[in-house]
């Protein structure tokens, strides 16, 4: 339950940070090598600074995208998940019943990364919109998360995450649980 309560997630912020870090290193290296003897200190700022700069850039993109998505969250327009639920676009389905669909995340942040969604959104653009009438489906989503973890063989250690709102980098406004596992999880999350 701590994971649900924290509503935070390592995913793309962490992954993008690594990509940004790699890209800046690749650009900087040829210039420094051409005009000076090799000195790692010249290539870039000290490691902690580079990490900080890259992290700020990556999270800023992530946050902008999340804010843009939040702006239209309550428009009622279908999301990408509606298209997946309606089988209009393909996904790798791991579990399905009459209320819940679980499919592999297109950008996995762990060896196992599955999204568990209610087939009917019914106002649940995000957990923060939950009302009394949603109690059953919220329970079914958690139960489906456990079934998915069992099917994937990660019952010994998995994480369930809900990103809620722009401050948590939610990008799709159709409630979904991330089920992550298959590697050692760290704490605290990013
Ligand atoms: P959020 O950022 O809202 O917590 O999570 C949305 C998740 O949906 C992200 O992890 C993202 O990779 C995933 N996602 C976005 N578009 C698609 C898609 O078209 N197919 C699948 N399978 N996952 C998607």
Automatic annotation (TrEMBL):
Active site: 176 (tele-amp-histidine intermediate)
An annotated Gene Ontology molecular function: adenylylsulfatase activity
Organism name: Trapa incisa
SUPFAM superfamilies linked to this entry: HIT-like
Domain called HIT: residue spans: 80-190
Protein name per the record: HIT domain-containing protein
Short sequence motif named Histidine triad motif, residue ranges: 174-178
Matching InterPro entries: Histidine_triad_CS (IPR019808), Histidine_triad_HIT (IPR001310), HIT-like (IPR011146), HIT-like_sf (IPR036265)
Pfam families in the cross-refs: HIT
Transmembrane region(s): none
